Structure formats: C-alpha cells, structure tokens
Amino acid sequence: MKRKIISALLVLCMLLTLFPTTVLADTGMLPPPIQSIAVDPIRAAACAEVRLYVWTAEPEGANWWDEQYTIADPGTTNATVTPGGMFLATSPGIATVKVRLYDEGRQGNFEQDVQITVFEPIIITTQSLPDGQVGVPYAVDLETTGSPNYWDPVGDLPPWLELHEYKGTATLKGTPTVSGTYQVNVEASNNYTSAYAYFTIQITEAATPTSAPTSPTGSDPTGTEPTGTDPDDFSGVKMTQQPPAWTKGSNEPASFTSNADFADFLYVKVDEEIVDEANYDVEEGSTIVTFKPPFLESLSAGTHLVEIASVSGSAYGNIEIKAPASQKTKPTAKPGNNMPATGESNGQYPWLALLFLSVLLLVLRKKRMLQQRD
Q1: pLDDT tens digits, residue range 169-210?
Q2: Cα–Cα distance between 146 and 153 in angstroms, integer?
Q3: 82-133 per-position pLDDT tens digit
Q4: Is the CATH number 3.30.43.10 carried by domain 239-322?
Q5: Distance between CA 145 and CA 88 in Å, rounded?
Q6: What is the domain partition of the chain in residue ranges?
Q7: Which is it for strands 161-166 and 169-174: parallel, antiparallel or unpaired?
Q8: What is 123-204's CATH superfamily?
Q9: What is the CATH number of domain 34-119?
Q10: pTM beyond cutoff 0.85
Q11: If we measure between CA atoms, which residue out of 135, 159, 113, 72 comes closest to residue 274?
C-alpha cells in the first residue's frame, strides 16, 4: 500500500513539472490573478539604454511570463522600447511604458502602464586641476552638466583646501602651506544620480625673491620692462597700461591694466608682498587694478614693482612714487645790517661836499656883513 502511495506522488510531481498549468487547473490549485506589477528600473539617464523587467507582482504567489513592452506615451523624452524591454530616451521627462504579460492565475494577458523618469546625467566636465605654489592663493571652479544639487569630497581633502558649494556649483579654494602632490576626489549628485571625479594637484615650493639694486633710470630691478611680461613666464600675460609717476599729496588713484581675463584674477603684489584687497579696486577690461590714494601715500619715494597675478599668468609693471615738490620762498633781509655795501654810496659824496661848501660860504658872508656894520 505504501509503495502505491509513493508511486502516485512521484507521478504527480512529474506531471507538475511537465504540465504545471494543466495539473493545477485540473486540481483547482491555480495561483491568484495578478492585481499589479512593479517594473525596474523606474528611473533612467537620458541617452543611456537600460533593460526593463517585471520584478514582482501582487498579490503574493502570482505567476507570469512572456513580458512584452511598448511605448504608451513618450512625453518629452523621445523614448523608445523594444518588445524585450530595452528602453532608451534622449531627453529628460517622464515616459509611459505599457507592459503586457501572460498571467497564469487568470489564464490570460495582464496589462499595466508604468512611468519611467528620464533625467539628465551628471557629468563633471573639469578634466584636471591647475598646479599651485606655496603661499599663493588657489581657487578653481568645477564645471558640470546635469544640474547637481550637492557636492561632497570623497575622502579627505588636503588640509589647506576647502570645497565651497553654492546653488549646485562648486569651487576649490585655499592657500597651500606645504609643497607636494595631493589627491582631490569629489562627488556631484542630485536626487537621481551621482558623478565622481578624481584629480591630482602638484604644489611647488614658494618662490624665492631675488633683490637687485635699482638702476639710476629707475628701471625694474627684475629686468622686466614696465609693459612687458615676466621673463620667466611664457603665458603671454602682460601689463598693457600703467600710470605716470605719482606724487605724494596728490590724493589721486593710480591704475594698472593686465591683459588677463577678469575671471582669472587672483591677487596683487607690490614689492613681492600681497596687497590687502581693501587697498585697491579691481574691475573688468581686461583686468584693471586701481590703487587707492592712502595706500600710495604709504609707499616710500622711489620705484616699486607691481604684479597682477591671474590663473593664466602674471603681469608686471612699475610705479614711481615722488616726494612732494618743495616750495621756494623769497629771502628776507637780516635786521640790523643796513650798512651799504662798498661802492653803493659813491654817488652821495658830491652832494655832501656841495652842501658843506654852501654852509661855509653862508657863514663867511654873514661874518663879513657884521664887520661892515661895525
């Protein structure tokens, strides 16, 4: 008896394996009809092909096969899909895909529309970062496509560098303190996707300034002409305009113009020292730096080296500071020295002699008249 039961169970298992639908239908054991399905993925990047598939169905225990896909409404995405589920869209938006499959529980087809969100992929278009130098402020913007909402460092940034994020844009800023090679990794992301970039920055030692006496003509001690480029700089950046000599007390500004782009401006140096931003104004066209009178007054008389530093290079020039002109005064005679110099009174002597002779004659005449009366 037991042997017959075991044989019957084996036959039933074989039938279930070979003809599951028929056996279950005959025994009243069909799975429940499908009420809804879930497709994966429901988000896709524009211009990136993905494979759609039904990964689950409700209620639990439902069974299906023979999935077929068609576009019900491409919306703004320009989407296409193959019957096998290969989905491709070229523009952001929402596409509606119709999914048809065979539902074993209802012994027929089941259809459902699903929405696929198509987003613009994030691409960090900045390919590399410029090198830097110890003590020189460093700043570079990171460029992307795809509208990221968040920026984050991946791992630790160099101790002197910070990642500044503002409305989806990012800037790396800082002042290097130690030379060397640094790894900088960043992530840009939004609610749909992420992108990563891996950079290397080479920081060189600080430049050692070399001093040389100023020539009698007041030329630049570095050998750079006022409107020339740095002799060691091949970037083509140069000073295209600089002011005439500036006189103390004039209370006038002094402007320099570099042919570097305004967006590349970094800082200004005078005599190898970085000038505080409060002491000058900078504006476009290409890069115009105007020193304020109080700062110019603080400079000693003589010729001073001016450097306008930009990402693309530095422009060099000179400014000559002159002392205020001294006012000449009319000399005054010293008191108590009214004696005429030798030869000044030669013309007065004949008149004195004539006067003396007249008096003498008058006295003699009067004396004679008195004698005659007697």
Answers
A1: 899 999 999 999 999 999 999 888 899 999 999 999 987 765
A2: 18
A3: 999 999 999 999 999 999 999 999 999 999 999 999 999 999 999 999 999 9
A4: no
A5: 19
A6: 1-30, 34-119, 123-204, 239-322
A7: antiparallel
A8: Immunoglobulins (2.60.40.10)
A9: 2.60.40.1080
A10: no
A11: 135
